[in-house]
Amino acid sequence: NAGVTQTPKFQVLKTGQSMTLQCAQDMNHNSMYWYRQDPGMGLRLIYYSASEGTTDKGEVPNGYNVSRLNKREFSLRLESAAPSQTSVYFCASSRSSLTPNYGYTFGSGTRLTVV
Amino acid sequence: AQTVTQSQPEMSVQEAETVTLSCTYDTSESDYYLFWYKQPPSRQMILVIRQEAYKQQNATENRFSVNFQKAAKSFSLKISDSQLGDAAMYFCAYRSDGATNKLIFGTGTLLAVQP
Question: Which of B45, B47, B108 lies nearest to residue A90, judging by beta carbons?
Fold first, then answer.
């Protein structure tokens, strides 16, 4: 049981380059999320998908786009990377918004550096 | 909007001793869920313990227990018999019971365990 799988684990980009972070879960969860983690700021929500076919902005969506490809996969795209997007990115999933007591299952994170 | 505050950026404890990590939150809701996540150097986010706001009894998981004070909006984590493997960043998190219940994190407390 893999849980939540993120790729890649590390990435270095040049300013202005684009890339897509991939996330897949095999737990049949309905809801998926993208967070970024920065020192002293905890985890901040970028985008989320409450269910297949829906996506919504979180706290810090500027500079990002997402796609809920199917129930399993939720990708995060940086169209034109900026140094301010240097961060660790986490994908997470949860059963649904109807079961908030179960918390989230997280992927192992992607460390992204934009130079 | 809900907020979560962890006022201790760093803490230290001797092996086998007890340590308490603090967390306060702000909300106008009556039904919600609180979590503590552990993030070791591996970066993986691990759920430590959860508390339902409607339950008066404090949650316990082996050496980990919480002191949940709903009126004071306080949710502290106590680690008993601390072990070297407990060294990690600990995040307090809040999740509402509403339709758009996203996990909101505090800024984290870095716990060092001294041998």
Answer: B45
